[in-house]
Specification:
Helix content: over 70%
Number of helices: 7
Distance between the termini: 36 Å
Strand content: under 5%
Structural class: mainly alpha
Radius of gyration: 15 Å
Length: 104
């Protein structure tokens, strides 16, 4: 599962990462990949990728004066609206509120 985690870390920000693609690369089924990954890391591959994207987003919100559209694109999200929805769900704060409290 280390190969799977490394692949996710490497490709999560591209936005084209899919569970099916990763499973095919590892030559196992998507369900088996999810079960084994969950057992090894305590989260699903999708959640692991989301956490990697959000880590990058938090860094960009803290350090850069980028728009939400630019941050969404750099972090592999489809658009700023979807990015804001995911960010708020996981971080319990909107990207704008996070930026105000964590600006460096």
């Amino acid at each position: 599962m280390e190969r799977a985690a490394a692949y996710i870390r490497q490709h999560a920000l591209e936005g084209r990462l899919s569970l099916q693609q990763l499973a095919e690369r590892l030559r196992i089924g998507p369900s088996q990949l999810t079960r084994r990954f969950q057992a090894a890391y305590g989260v699903s591959p999708v959640r692991y990728a989301t956490e990697a994207r959000l880590a990058k987003a938090r860094a960009l919100l803290s350090d850069a004066e980028l728009t939400l559209d630019e941050i969404a694109e750099q972090c592999g999200f489809q658009n700023a609206v979807y990015f804001s929805r995911v960010f708020t769900k996981y971080m319990k704060s909107s990207p704008s509120a996070y930026r105000k409290t964590h600006w460096v």
